[in-house]
Specification:
The structure holds 2 protein chains of 2 kinds.
Chain A: H1 8-12, H2 30-44, H3 46-49, H4 87-123, H5 125-140, H6 143-154, H7 158-184, H8 188-195, H9 200-236, H10 248-259, H11 265-292, H12 294-297
Helix pairs in contact in A: 2-4, 2-11, 4-5, 4-7, 4-9, 5-7, 6-7, 7-9, 8-9, 9-10, 9-11, 10-11
Chain B: E1 4-17, E2 22-35, E3 39-43, H1 50-58, E4 65-74, E5 77-78, H2 84-90, E6 95-98, H3 112-124, H4 128-141, H5 147-150, H6 160-172, E7 178-182, H7 190-207, E8 210-215, H8 218-224, E9 227-232, E10 235-241, H9 242-247, H10 252-259, H11 299-303, E11 309-310, E12 316-317
Parallel strand pairs in B: 3-8, 3-9, 6-7, 7-8
Antiparallel strand pairs in B: 1-2, 1-4, 4-5, 9-10, 10-12, 11-12
Helix pairs in contact in B: 3-4, 3-6, 4-6, 6-7
Classes of the chains: A mainly alpha, B alpha/beta.
Chain lengths: 299, 324
């Protein structure tokens, strides 16, 4: 794997030329960090980096292919869409929207779900009953339909989408974390904490939360993909990010129409962006999982 | 007695299951007295109520169980009258406990220093730094080499014996008056066991704390304890000073237990075993609970359960044979 150039296997058989310089990068997952860094920089400096206004196109320049394809020009590196908007600029601005929506929704779902999961698992009794019955009901509703329903009520906007996705997906955290807590609370270190006079609150915060953090993080990296795709689906249906704004999911959905006509660049590039971000988040999550477990850390 | 630290007076803790149809008398009318600095051994086979007794003292019984009658005084205070918050302040600070499996008692995600310091921070509001310093001193006192470096390490980096000593260090961190050790050596091999017992003994002498040592190993009791209480089917069937119990056991069960210890230098005769099984605690027979296995059972034993007979100043037995 090229993900970890500092690992011993990479340093033994590899010719020196291919080795990356060692600047205190041991163990850091360079690939996902690089991807996320590029995406973040692009998102933050979108106004400066993007060559065109992402929301305005000129109809004279419709369906221009990418620069390296016959008929393309270097003016529009990644081509233009059905109303002549620059795909590259839209991708750059879209990074801003998609990352904001993706990360925030995952964080909201994660915090809400983990908190309720820990409370429900540890306290048991009526708290458990209430939280789990709500979770059951929530999970019984198809996530997307539920999201569409909520979006239709509160109306489409970026922030509403964030809150809706958080509200729809927290149940997955609650379920998994509760299960984890149920097994953790029978472990002796929790008993020792009880015997040592820790309050329930202290036990949940100091002993349970750190032990479920791993699971929550791994779940978050998986959820990021789900959330971004959901955002795409909602946008496609017109209840997501409102149209002139560029979001990767929205671009993907818009581009579908042109796919049969051979305008592949409209779907491939946003698709690649989504894949890259989800992949980076997954790799980073995997690394964090190992990093947060003292038993695996030394290996 | 004025210097009594812990007094249990006919304490009963029952598990009520099946909506009250099954009552398991896990601890039944147990009376014990423990003086400051004294070591009490609680012996009995599995399921005789030893652990339930320990949990009852800390008022940490599982929800299915409850203390149904009796009294419990700790250092002159009525433990049964304490609120949950007051009990929390007592646990860990004044009564500490070492669990059955100390190997699993440490949180794998925190350094040893954090965990040893945790009790101090909970009970004495110690700052992070002072908790850390005192944790170092505590590790030294339980004879962990290179204590200060060890503070930064994680439980999985230590051997079983070391983890156990760390659990011991946590238990004594707030200088409790009473330490309850629930079979703390069952998961250790014999050499480590011996070291650990010696350490416990040293700690006890140094800090003058009282110790309740729960075990099924009479050899350990003989070495560690001042007095012993033998439990059978939820009751203390014989209690007294170690020397007296070992030299002149009154209850046939105690006698059988002592005879089933293998001895060095003994002849080639077979070890005696106690036939049969302990009774189901939910359906105790009328009369003495040991009658079915007792080699010296009399007709009277089947009719009436023996009360506690005081044999000597501190020696008592629940057996008709001990009737004066």
């Amino acid at each position: 794997m090229s993900a970890d150039p500092a690992s011993p296997s990479a340093t033994t058989g590899t010719p020196a030329v291919f080795r990356l310089p060692r600047i205190r990068t041991e163990g850091l997952p360079l690939v996902p960090i690089a991807i996320l860094l590029v995406l973040v920089v692009l998102a933050v400096f979108a106004d400066v980096v993007a060559p065109y206004n992402p929301e305005v196109g000129s109809l004279a320049q419709r369906f221009k292919p990418p620069a390296w394809v016959a008929g393309g020009s270097t003016e529009y590196l990644l081509g233009t869409d059905h109303i002549g908007r620059d795909v590259l600029s839209r991708l750059i601005f879209g990074a801003r929207v998609s990352m904001m929506v993706g990360f925030t929704a995952v964080v909201i779902a994660g915090v809400l779900g983990s908190t309720l999961g820990i409370l429900s698992g540890y306290l048991g009794g009526w708290v458990d009953q209430v939280v789990m019955r709500v979770t059951d009901t929530w999970l019984a509703l198809p996530a997307l339909t539920f999201a569409i329903f909520l979006a239709a009520i509160v109306g489409p906007s970026e922030w509403n989408i964030v809150i809706i996705l958080g509200a729809v997906y927290w149940t997955r955290y609650a379920r998994v974390i509760r299960g984890e807590v149920l097994s953790l609370k029978e472990r002796d270190f929790v008993r020792l904490a009880i015997v040592a006079g820790c309050s329930k609150w202290t036990i949940m915060r100091r002993h349970l939360l750190p032990n479920v953090a791993n699971t929550a993080i791994v779940l978050a990296t998986l959820m990021l993909g789900v959330v971004i795709v959901s955002e795409a689906a909602l946008s496609f249906l017109g209840v997501g990010v409102p149209p002139p704004k560029p979001a990767w999911g929205l671009m993907l959905a818009d581009g579908k129409k042109g796919l049969m006509a051979g305008y592949w660049w409209l779907t491939v590039f946003p698709g690649v962006c989504i894949v890259l971000m989800v992949l980076a988040a997954n790799l980073l999550g995997d690394w964090l999982r190992v990093k947060l477990d003292p038993q695996l850390r030394q290996l | 007695m004025s210097d009594a630290l812990l007094e249990l007076d006919r304490l009963s803790a029952h598990y009520v299951t099946g909506r009250g149809t099954r009552v398991v008398k896990a601890v039944d009318e147990v009376s014990l007295t423990l003086r400051k600095g004294e070591t009490l051994g609680v012996v009995g086979e599995s399921g005789s109520g030893k652990t339930t007794l320990a949990l009852a003292i800390l008022r940490l019984l599982p929800t299915a169980a409850q203390i149904v009658s009796g009294a419990m005084r700790f250092d002159g205070e009525d433990l049964l009258a304490k609120s949950p918050a007051e009990m929390r302040r007592i646990r860990g600070k004044r009564i500490a406990m070492i669990l059955q499996d100390p190997m699993a008692s440490l949180n794998p995600l925190f350094t040893v220093g954090d965990q040893v310091g945790e009790t101090l921070r909970v009970h004495e509001n110690a700052s992070r730094r002072s908790a850390r310093e005192r944790a170092g001193a505590l590790l030294k006192s339980v004879k962990i080499p290179a204590a200060v470096q060890r503070l930064r390490e994680y439980p999985h980096q230590m051997s079983g014996g070391m983890r156990q000593r760390i659990v011991g260090a946590i238990a004594i961190s707030c200088e409790p008056q009473l330490l309850i050790a629930d079979e703390p050596t069952t998961s250790l091999d014999v050499t480590i066991q011996a070291q650990y017992l010696k350490l416990l003994r040293d700690i006890q002498r140094e800090h003058g704390l009282a110790l309740i040592f729960i075990t099924h190993n009479l050899g350990i009791v003989a070495r560690m304890c001042d007095s012993v209480a033998v439990m059978y089917a939820g009751r203390v069937i014989e209690a007294g000073p170690v020397r007296e119990i070992f030299n002149a056991p009154l209850h046939p069960y105690t006698r059988a237990l002592i005879e089933s210890i293998p001895r060095m230098g003994g002849g080639p005769e077979r070890l005696t075993a106690i036939d049969g099984q302990p009774p189901d605690l939910a359906v105790l027979p009328p009369g003495c609970s040991f009658q079915a296995r007792c080699p010296r059972v009399m007709d009277h034993c089947r009719e009436e359960a023996p009360p506690v007979f005081d044999v000597a100043a501190q020696h008592s037995a629940r057996c008709w044979l001990a009737r004066p």
